[in-house]
Amino acid sequence: MSVRSDKKEATRRRVLEAARDLFEAEGYEETTVRAIARRAGVSVGSVFTSFPSKLDILSEVMGERLDELYEELDRVNGRLRGSTADRLRSLFALFFAFETRRKRLFLAHIAAAYDWRPGATASPFGRNEHLKQVIRQCLARGVAAGDVNPAIDPEVIVEMLLAAYAWTYRLAAWNDADAEAMSRCMDEQIGLLANGFVPRTQVSGLI
Asked: Which domains does the chain have, with CATH numbers?
């Protein structure tokens, strides 16, 4: 039984490593399960024994990638300084710097979220609670510091920030933008969200 379990886990690891490399090199849509199996050196049936679908494979690949990101976030989150807007800028700059190491893989993760058919383990972009919790903590710290309006629903801000973050990745898809260029774009969007649309004389509270 132990040998069988070890073999199954080894197959699963080979599939994930093959899929990660193919998604990055060829793109998610262009990568077939057959190609993943060929690269992993296993049968197509073995792939489906480990994962219900290609979407589930992508979800697992990204889950492992994001675990690395969240470990990094947890290390720096409490040490960020400045206003809430400044801390959010720093957080998202860290996101971009990390994810552009495998840009096409993260683009696939975002794109697949709009055509997601969740299986038992699938978790598309935007549904990861760890990412949202990091932003919530930043906003809560801002409320305590007095530069975030406590009357504003933080979940609305979280959703708006994630939407801006995902849309900023169009620069990578269309113009092959790097982390620095996307961070500059996101910085402006965070500033606009923080200040609101109305003239400063009419602002009753900051975000």
From this structure: 1-50 (1.10.10.60), 58-202 (1.10.357.10)
